[in-house]
Structure formats: C-alpha cells, structure tokens
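User: Second chain of the day. Same drill as before.
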Amino acid sequence: MNYKTKSILSLLLTAVVTAALVFVSVAGIGPDKKFSAANIKRGLDLEGGLSITYQTVKEDPTMEEMSDTRYKLQLRVDNYSTEAAVYQEGTNRINVDIPGVSDAEKILKELGQAGAIYFIYGTGNVEYDYEKAGFVLTKSMEEIQTAGDVVLTGADIAKATARQIEAQSGVGYEYVVELNLNEEGRVKFADATRASIGKIIAIVYDGEVISAPKVNDAITEGSAIISGMADFDEANKLASTIRIGALPLELTEIRSTVVGAQLGEEAISTSLQAAGIGFLCVILFMIVCYRIPGLAASIALTIYIGLNVIVLNLFDVTLTLQGMAGIILSVGMAVDANVIIFQRIREELATGKTVRSSMRLGFGKALSAIVDGNVTTLIAAFVLYFLGSGGVKGFAITLAIGILLSMFTALTVTRFILNALYGIGFDHEKFYGIQKERKILPFVKNFKKFVAVSAVIIVAGFVAMGVSVAKGNGALNYGLDFKGGTSLSVTFPEELTEKLNQRLEDTVSETLSLTGEIVKVTGENTYIIKTVELSQEQRAVLTDALVEEYGVDDSLIQTENISGKVSGEMRAAAVKAVIIATICMLIYIWIRFKNFNFAASAVSALLHDVLVVLTVYAVGRIGVGNTFIACMLTIVGYSINATIVIFDRIRENLAQNAENEETAELSEIVNKSVTETLSRSINSSLTTFIMIFMLALLGVDTIREFAFPLMAGIIAGAWSSVCITGGFWHVLERKFKRNKPVEEGEWYEP
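Assistant: Same format as last time:
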C-alpha cells in the first residue's frame, strides 16, 4: 500500500470518526440519548430550581449526626424531585440542590421549617377541638417532656413513606404512611403501644398535632402503618413532615438561590448560540489565515468538541453556566496550540526546508511551549477546583478537561490529519504559507513607554475606586457573594417600562419597610433588587407583592440569599486562590526555565493583568461576585500561557546564539524573540477574544458579567506578554548579571 492510499484511508477514517462524534454529541446512543449534549447533567442555573446551604445550630456535630441528617434530608427532598441532591460541605454544612421545580419559594419555606417531631401519649395531653376540626395540645411540649409522656423523637425514626395499599375490606385502596423505626425506637414503641391499645398516640410537629392515630395492636417489629388519609397527597404530606422533623440536627439557612426554569432555558439557548457562532468564526479565521493547516485544525477542533461532550457524560459532570463559559473559553485556547505549531511550520519553510521536514520540525519545536503553557493553566484550574465551590468548581472542571483534550487534539489529531492531507497531494508550500521576513521591532527600547501606558490605566482604576469610596459606594461593586444580603432578579412584562425603577423602590419600602438598590439590566426589561439579608418570610412576601402588583411571572424571578458569614469566607477564599495559584505557577516556571528572572518577569505580567482587570471592575462597576475568582484565575493562567511562549523563544534563541558562537546584545535577542512570536500572540488572543466576545454579545446577564472582564484580561494579557515581560526580563538580567554583550553562552543557563 503506497503513501497516497494510506493517506486517503486516513482521511476516510477521520471523516467517519468526526461524523460519529458529531452524531453521538447531537443525537446520543439509544432512547436515553447517552453521551449526547442533551444528556449532560445541568446545574440549577441552567435547569432552574432551588439550591440551599444549611449550617447546623450545633457548633461541633459528630460525623454520625451529620451523616444521619444528610441521609434523612435526602429522603425529605425526594418528595420534590427524583434528581434532588444532598451533600455535606465541611464539618457542619449541608447543601441541597433541587432542579427543575416550579414552586421553589414554597419548597424553600417548607425546608426552612426546622421544628422537631414527637410521638406522645394522647391521654391527658391532647383533646379534640371541634372548631378547628382536629386535635390540639392541652399542655406545652416542655410540660409533656417533663412528665415523661414522649414516646418517640425524630432520632428514633428511620423512614416514613406514603403508600397506596389494598383496603382491609378488600374493596378499593386506602392511603397510608408506613413508619420504620431504628432499634432503639422499636423497643420504645413496643412498650408504648402495649400500654396504649385502644388509645391515641399523637404526632406533634413544631408544637402542633398533625395526626392522632389510635393504637389497635401492640407494634413490636419496628414497623407501623398510619391509616385514615383521604388521598395520596395527604399521606405524602404527613410522611414528609415526619421526615422533616426527624432530622437529628437543627439547621439554619445561610445561603439560597432560586432560579426560574425559563431563565435556565434562556441561558442555555443563548450560550449555545454564542458558542456556535464563535466556533464558526474561529474555523473561518483559521482556514483563511493558515490554509491547509487551518483546515486540519478545524477538523481537529470539531473532534475536540465531540470528545468534550462525551467526557462530560462519562464523568457525570454537572454543567453550570460558568462551566459552559469554561468550555467556550477552552475552545478558544485549544486554537492556541495549533497556532504555535503552524507559525513554527511557516518559519521552517522560510529557511528553505521541505514541507515534510518543516511539519516535523514545527511540531517538535512547538512541544515545549505548548506543554508548559497548558500546565500552568491547569494549575489555575486545579486551585479553582480545590478552593472554589459551586459554579466556580464546575468552571474549573470543564476548563481542565478542555485543556487536556486540546493538547491531545493539537499534538495528535491535527498532526494525523495534516500528514494525510499532505499525502493526497497538498504537498506544496503554497498550501501552508511561508513566514515573511519580519523587521525586528524595538520592544526593549520602548519598554518604559509601554510601562507608562499600563501605569496610566492602573492608576485610573485606583482613582475610580477612590471616587467610589468618597461617594460611599465602596471601592468595588461587591455582589452578594462578597458582602452578603438578598438579591432578586425580576423580569417584568414588556409594557411596564415607565418610571418602573421608582415604583419598585416604593414597593420594596412599603412591603418590607426597607430600602433597596434597584438596578436595570441594560437592554432587557429585567431589574435587580438588592437589599440586606431577608428571611424566608420576607422573601415570600416581596415575591407575592411583585406577582400581584406587576403581573410578574414567578418563573422569571431569580432569588439569591447569602449570609454575611459565608460572604466573608468567600472573600478570603478568593484571595487565597489567587495567591496559591500564582505561587504554584511561578515555582513551575522557575523549575522549567532554571532562571528566577523568568519567574519574576512572569510575576510582573500577572500583577499587571490583575490590576488592569481590577480597573475594569472599578470603572465599569461590574459586580464582584463568585465569578470574580474564576475570572481572575483564568486571566492569570491565560496570561502565563502567552508569556511562556515568548520565554520559550528567548531560551531557544539564547541557546542558538551560544551554539553558533555569535555575539549579540541581550536586547537584540529579546526583540527578536518577541517579534518572532508576535503573530502567534495576536492570532491566539484574537481567536479566544472572538469566543468570549460572542458570549458578551449574545449571553444572558450573568454570562456578560463574566465575559467583559475576561475580554479585558485577554487584551491585557496579550499586551503584557508582548510589551512588558520581555523588557522586564531584560532589565533583571542586566541588573543581576554582568552588563556585557552575550558571548559564548554566558547568558544561557542550560
């Protein structure tokens, strides 16, 4: 089999694999659509629903108490959704996620009721109230407990389940609650029922009698049936209430988020639309700019998207709005490795080498820069995962998966496709392009001017923060994640536009006797209402007032509530994450380049980019919330990636200078290195910018708040990498090494 035939078969195989991946990603496998994009588990911000974080009242609960509470809370929320998740966070917190529910505020109110459940002797403790048409307590629970009339508490109950069983008469069905007790509860209940045959054992929740069943027989096996319910809903409500009161630990709400399902669907559709348009723009750019290599990269990127969808399914990753941003960002970054390779191929062709040889050398020489750049970004992703929570953690997972897959597709798949295209006849250099001779630009000479420009921007940020502080608004526009409080995002009917801002202020004031900050979302009929932390009752009252007075669809109301304690922890976590990620990346650079000045120069770029983005947050008064952490660390990782490509070229040119025993000024080597990587810096930043720009242009408000600072960070990262890092490294080298021309490799550290 000749080389051309092998190449044709390789392209056919590529076409089949690409088509299969696209098909599986869109349609999935089997009736459940396994491995498809639609099958990926979606977070609450995409699915809609309720997320709540509880903290135990008891300061130091045992592992067993936390485990029992989590388990029983899971049984409790299963009534609302079969996909509800309950998981422990730290030593004294429990998170509850209930996706897809339409009555989230009602559920939130029910979940917040932390009353205790008691089974008590009825004689002398309860009586029938005909006006209320039910049993009521004649004594307080404190008196009943003191008298020793408590039969069981929540700690004795293992399970309570609503059931439909055949009626004792044999005709039709009846609705009951099946009660299962633990061993201690079995013994207690056996003794109590033996002494209470024909009498009542009442069930009391939060000081009210919710059921008063009569004991027909002694119950000794730890399992009992409570009958007499009119329908399944009544039985289910009783079972749920018993489970609610059976929690071993008392819980208090410290954070909650309610997202309407319609808002979630809108977030998905707009984000996918942005991703699709951005992806097509990137493919078009790559083909126009790099010709045949660009075509190979476009096919590899399509395979990359398919693999990404399948991997997210395999690892059962819960995709959040920030996670989608991580995927879209990683698509832009996936192009970077291909750009580095293709620029290298063009450079080799410019030296007179054959296309075949240039391809081999291009992949080989690009390897170190690709690996080093992606490893540093991975470090940022890992720090985000271990120190972040919720959406930030989801962003870190999707970003890490994207980086690993992008390295595989660029170094393996793109190479495979490019070799096959070469083999079928695309073997002339015109299909690849030759790097034109570039005039060496005086970056080092203009270093001070570049620093001055950056300084003006950064100082403007500090001035803006100072002005905001003087006005009493705070240096930055801290969101709930950083200062605590309650926020409602409300979408109003289109006809309600005139003077709505003032009317909303009056509504908040009249309903809650509080003042709130009212902000209109640009371009939408949506308003953000921010107040101090509200109780569940206050949130319910305000929501009802908005629905009644303005005709708002409650599925279009998104609520978030965060306690001051949690917001303080998040501020500390943000600072900690940035510091740890930066230190880890700098240690890696120091080790890889064996030169501390490279690491120190990278610090200057990181500090520069963080301060520039901080300026954007300050001047634009963009909300500083949970996405702020993800934004900053993404920018840090992306900036390092661009910087490493330039450092890698400086290291290579130093080695080549020493090997050829040439004499060159250090500034000349820096200028040459930055100039040689300039096309890569511009093209990679441009492709990533396109993806993020589409998010900002078409995404929902939450995504825009994330996208605009990222766009600024991409520009700042490109500027610092090209204009500042090389010049700063040059200053450090001359300051801490001999101020002489480079001779016989004295500047090169192998």
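Residues 738-750 have pLDDT under 50 and may be disordered.

User: Great, on to the next one.
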